[in-house]
Amino acid sequence: MRKEAVGRRAVVHGQDDPRVIALHRAVARLHRELAGYRAQLADRQIAEDELAAVEAALRAGAPEVVRLRHSLLLIAGAIGSVSALAEALAEVRKAVELFGGPTP
User: What is the mean pLDDT of each run of 10 residues along the chain (104 residues)?
Assistant: First the structure.
């Protein structure tokens, strides 16, 4: 089942939506890898907060594309160019892209 709102696209999905599964796995992976990254990271809390926000949106059942993309930008900015987290961050980006872009 899918529902789209004008302007701010929200996706209502079932538990078996492959986009949701991919995003949930990617977020969980990045969260684990960020927790295991012990070096100083100035904006670690921002990244952790946004990962939690994405997880909450997935549990609520209606992640908004605009909000997902905003969270992705904040996470990427907070992590910066930490090569140890680059692959997991790329997986999150790819999973967010599965939801498409915002409607104009």
Answer: 42 71 96 95 95 94 89 95 95 94 65
CA 102 to chain centre: 15
pTM: 0.82
Give the phi and the psi of residue 94 in degrees, each rounded to 5. Answer: -60, -40
Alpha-carbon distance of 14 to 62, in angstroms, equals 10
Task: Please name which of 35, 29, 32 lies closest in space to residue 90, comparing C-alpha atoms.
Answer: 29
Alpha carbon distance 82, 69 (integer Å): 20
CA distance 22 to 63: 13
Q: Which of 37, 31, 77, 35 is nearest to 54 (CA)?
A: 31
Q: Which two tokens stand for residue 99?
A: 């939801």
Cβ neighbour number for residue 59 with a 10 Å cutoff:
10
Residue whose pair of structure tokens reads 């209502």 in the numeric block: 12
Question: Is residue 65 within 8 Å of residue 100, measured between CB atoms?
Answer: yes
Which pLDDT score, from 0 to 100, does residue 81 have?
Answer: 86
